[in-house]
Amino acid sequence: MKQENSFDEAKVLILGFTFKSDCPDVRNTKTIDIVKELQDFNMLVYVIDDWVNPEEVKHEYGIDLIAELEKGKYDGVVLAVGHSELNELRVQQFALFGKENHVLYDVKHVLKPSEADIRL
Question: Where are the alpha helices (DSSP H) in 8-120?
């Protein structure tokens, strides 16, 4: 019998999908590697990025972007791209999207070191 991990089917929100900040280009994006790795651990991954064309992301990567964020839904929140609008948000605003015991992972150093649970 397969033993499930504690993060099995965890809901993870990824903020940003582009190759770089404040740019609509998704060619060579490294965010796809994060998505695939989380999916390999049987996590449910939700990606949002207002800078990109959702049809292009679906065609190139097979990912359906979400159009709206849901408060209190996610077990983890990953800040994957440092878009300027994300840089303006505060840690409390990111925390609104996570469940009570969520993890906030800051890949692009958008937050202060003390504000993120994990940083790259």
Answer: 31-40, 54-61, 84-87, 91-95
